[in-house]
What does this fold into?
Amino acid sequence: MPELKTLGLFIITAIAEIVGCYLPYLWLREGKTIWLLLPAALSLALFVWLLTLHPTASGRVYAAYGGVYVFVAIFWLWTVDGIKPTQWDLIGALVALIGMAIIMFAPRAS
It folds into this structure.
């Protein structure tokens, strides 16, 4: 099941990126402690490392990752921000996931 492994790795990667951006947001917009920048930096370093684990061309990985990021960000909107996604949010996230699947799993000539 390499497809599930790829999708799982993308989801973990997206969470690392979102956390790495959300913590500075809390500091800048919500007045939380500046110490949040330390785990934010670690999370962003983890994000970059996770992107290197994909066994395909970096441009393809970045393009496909974007689709999973959209999906995870909509899930974050719901679970962390407490805002229920609209029907259009969900449709857009599904379209993004379909795009990721086409980019990553389409047959290729050797």
